[in-house]
Write a structure and sequence with these properties.
Layout: E1 9-14, H1 28-34, H2 37-42, E2 48-53, H3 71-90, E3 94-99, H4 105-119, E4 122-128, H5 149-153, H6 159-162, E5 176-181, H7 188-194, E6 198-201, H8 202-208, H9 210-217, E7 225-232, H10 254-267, E8 270-276, H11 287-300
Parallel strand pairs: 1-2, 1-3, 3-8, 4-5, 4-7, 5-6, 7-8
Helix pairs in contact: 3-4, 8-9, 9-10, 10-11
């Protein structure tokens, strides 16, 4: 059974690739719109407002400095995302952030964390991703900040990002559930364990099945829980979703992805979400964008 969506939806574009290693995710928001996202969400019976695109610095395409690439630009974009997402939450609307690279999740989840503290709710984050996204400047082989958002949200990273929610860490270890991970950098493994993250990697998913994984990931949700979904399209198998710069083989199947999103919707607790890392320059006839739209609509409750 799918729960009825309780909130109007605001689309917020964040057209940037400053946190990534390859250009293209800056075109993600427009590709999602062109693939019919707003129309797909209209069937939910709630108002869908497109707030347009946020503004931020362009990609300077510079080499790393002190272990980070484009740190100032990533900070600027995340401040813009934080403020825009928080404004929608304060108005009782559900913000859907259209990325952009995954470093933007620092801003959106920091906003959700700040909002939850203000209204007395617990925050639960589902992180759908092929990668652990838990590098530090010492462990990252690339220095790209889209590989560091979870570490920042758990308090490891530059102060301007770790403090964005108003408290450090923005996320408690037991607030995060990672699903679909199948690529972890060697130096990242220890940090994942140190920060106490719960990871359902692809072997676990295949052993337990998506329904059981989601039952565990959503366990304990109640009316006092705000659920945030962070959907990196490389969660999907690249045979389904080629429009990603960081594809990893043996990702989630279409059946698994649909079931995952159906169970998110059935929880009735979804309060904010983002879709990130769609790179239209690498897509094939909008395949990835169209599938992302279908899955987002499913997570929000369309049949």
């Amino acid at each position: 059974m799918v729960a009825t969506l309780k909130h109007d939806i605001t689309l917020i574009g964040a057209p940037t690739d400053v946190g990534a290693g390859r250009p293209g995710t800056s075109q993600g928001p427009q590709a999602l719109r062109a693939a019919g996202l707003a129309a797909a969400l209209q069937t939910l019976g709630r108002q869908v407002h497109d707030a347009g695109d946020l503004r931020g610095p362009p990609n300077p395409q510079q080499p790393p400095h002190d272990g980070y690439r484009h740190l100032d630009e990533v900070i600027a974009w995340n401040h813009a995302v934080h403020d825009a997402v928080l404004a929608e939450l304060l108005q009782g609307r559900l913000p859907l952030l259209l990325g952009g690279d995954h470093s933007l999740a620092i801003g959106s989840i920091s906003a959700a964390a700040r909002h939850c503290r203000a209204v007395g709710k617990r925050l639960r984050v589902l992180w759908l991703d092929a990668h652990a996204d838990c590098n530090s400047r010492r462990t990252s082989p690339s220095a790209n900040l889209h590989g560091m958002p979870l570490a920042c949200l758990r308090g490891v990273g530059p102060a301007a990002l770790t403090q964005l929610s108003g408290t450090v860490p923005a996320l408690a270890a037991d607030a995060v559930r990672q699903i679909g991970v199948r690529s972890v950098d060697p130096g990242e493994v220890a940090l994942v364990h140190e920060l106490g993250l719960t990871v359902f990697d692809m072997p676990a998913l295949h052993t337990l099945g998506m329904r059981e994984v989601m039952a565990r990931a959503l366990a304990g949700l109640d009316k006092h829980t705000h659920l945030h979904l962070s959907f990196d399209v490389d969660f999907l198998d690249p045979g389904l979703a080629p429009g990603v710069a960081t594809t990893v083989r043996n990702g989630a199947s279409l059946q698994e992805a649909r079931l995952c999103m159906q169970l998110v919707a059935a929880s009735g607790r979804l309060g904010s979400l983002e879709v990130v890392e769609l790179n239209p320059l690498l897509d094939q006839h909008q395949r990835t964008a169209v599938l992302a739209v279908e899955l987002l609509a499913t997570a929000l409750g369309t049949s």
